[in-house]
Each structure stands twice: as C-alpha cells, then as structure tokens.
C-alpha cells in the first residue's frame, strides 16, 4: 500500500518499500539530461536506497536528434555506476534499460531487429512528443507488440494533446500497452491539469506502474517531502512484482 506517500502525519518517514523497484530514472552520468557526474549519480542512488527502493532499472533517453545512446554506451556507464555504488557501500540493485523516443530511428531499430534494452518482462519503455501528437501512435505501439515486446508508455498524463479525447488512453491499454505514471504528477509538480489527468487515469484503473522519472536530486527530495493530496491512499498499487522477473 502507498497511502503514506502524501500523508502529512508520516511524511518524515516516507518510504518507497512498497513500490520496491523504480523503472524510470536518469541516473547514468553524462549521457542525457539527467545527472552529469558520477558524484551526482551516487547521490541519487544513495537517496533512492534511503527512500526504500531495493532495485533501480534506470532508463537513459535514446532520442536520436539529441541523445545517440547505444547499448554499449549504456552498459559502460552502468558498469561504472555499479562499481562506484559498491565502493560507497550501497546495496541497491542497479540495472539499465532505456527510454525510447518513438521516432524514425526507433522504428528502424525495431523493424531491423536491432538490440533494444528492456525492463523486466521484456517491457519496452517508450515516450511520445510532448507538444505535437504522432499521427500513428497506436500503430507504433502495436508494432512493438508485433515484435514481441510489451510496450510501456512513459508519463501518459503529460501528453496534453490527448486531453481533448481521453478515451485514447483506454484504447491504448485495450491494445496491450501498459501506462507508467510519474510520482510527481500526483503532487502537482508539472501543473494542475497534469495532476488532474493523473487522477483521472488512476480513477479509471489505466495505470500499471509508478515511476520517479528522477533526473536530479531535487526530484527525489520533492518526492520525499511532498504532502499534497492523498492520491496514493485512494489508488494504491505497487511495482514489486517486477523485482524477481
């Protein structure tokens, strides 16, 4: 149960143990818009362990116009972070996948059967543009399924162009897509409208996973200190089923 997360009475003892695993973060240093140094990365991982996570599957961006990350680049940075975490006495398990921006390069990798880095259960974390909708979002997500992956759409509550017809979210879920909500969306960090859509998605049982999407230590501090509205008391769920996959 996650009813403690925004509870003012227990906020000093916030723990994410019930979630168990974070499947969306940016803690590999220097390869996207997340942390830039190994020192920042260790601060982030240490904070995540202190918050109660037992496992992280960090997900650097692969967005070919901005972040040309490859499996080799990601694995090299993962190895560096794991060693640094070990040197600092941290026990949290650290793995890596990627957050794939659905663009022409992604579609090429998918159709050419290039290696893609997945979350537990052969899940593929993908994101859409924030401001301009793709004309064929459903087709792209269905093609992921056809290639044998389980698509997980990152932070659907932030795609405001879906708000005019929110039934699109149910259509995506009915087609086999899982949805991952950002914790900070529940606190109003991204704005009131996004918070309301997060609430709507939860009320309609469309969210499968909760993720931090943490890019910097301040995001984790906000998660720890947030006490606005008891969203998770009303809609408890957990990610821990993924830990042993």
Structure description:
Helix content is 33%, strand content 13%. With 245 residues, it is an alpha/beta fold. The strands form two sheets. Strands 3-5-6-7-8-9 form a six-stranded parallel sheet, with helices on one face. It has a three-stranded parallel sheet with strand order 1-2-4, covered by helices on one side. The longest helix is centred in the N-terminal third of the chain and has 17 residues, at 71-87. It is globular and about 50 Å long. It starts with 20 loop residues before the first strand and ends in an 11-residue tail after the last helix. Residues 1-13 have low confidence and may be disordered.
Taken in chain order, the helices and strands follow as EHEEHEEHEHEHEHEHH
> Which percent band covers the strand fraction?
5-15%
- Give the termini distance in whole angstroms: 21 Å
Number of strands: 9
Find the CATH superfamily: Metal-dependent hydrolases
Q: Overall mean pLDDT score?
A: 89
Extract low-pLDDT stretches: 1-13
SS field, number of helical segments: 8
